[in-house]
Amino acid sequence: MPPTPRRPRRALQLAVNAVLRSDVAVATRRPVVGLTFDDGPDPLVTPRLLDLLGSRGARATFFVVGLRVRAHPGLVARAVAEGHEIAVHGHTHRRLPDLGAWGQLRDLATARRSTRAVAGARPRRYRPPYGEQRPSTVLLAKALRLRGAMWTASAHDWKDELDEAAQLARVWPDLTAGGVLLLHDAAAGEPARDVDPDRVLRLVTGVLDGLAERQLSAVSLAELAQAGPAVTEPWFDRWLHG
Predict the structure, then answer these.
(1) Phi/psi at 41 (5° precision)
(2) What superfamily in CATH does domain 23-241 come from?
């Protein structure tokens, strides 16, 4: 029986997925989780967030937007000085698959350059805005020596209709040792909007309290990577289903 027309495409997808994978977690028994924040820095939220993290001995990876880095370099420098990791979240926060190959490369390269200039070291990780990428995105990021870093749990804190209790309830089923939590210290979406600093602080306080109750510590992804081998997945929902 001759193969159906879909089989060659499916074989290509499987081959691509086997090679072009993104980090989502770490396989470890150590009581650590990766704490990450997207879209910042924000001049009203990020300073208070850094105060909170410092008071609780927690560290995080901040996936920053290049344009915001240029506008608030002092906040990035402070985060680095206090032991946090800085990573790339694009330069403009536009969806990378919409930009074409050259546009994706330019956006990631510009963001990496801006971040490196302020952080003082080359960023090693990137997270595409909205988590959307295609195989071309991963290939171009690899050319820039950027490693994809996704997540296992999210508070869905961009949904204004959810209060902090509902957001916290979404975290715990998917967050165990070695996992990665997605949060935000700004909202650089389309359109960008202001974020309530008090709401962010209440949510993060609840997260840190919940981690303490579960005897888990919040660390940056750089620290999490030291705890065990990376767990990787193909992260191409848009490409596979779009």
Answers:
(1) -80, 155
(2) Glycoside hydrolase/deacetylase (3.20.20.370)
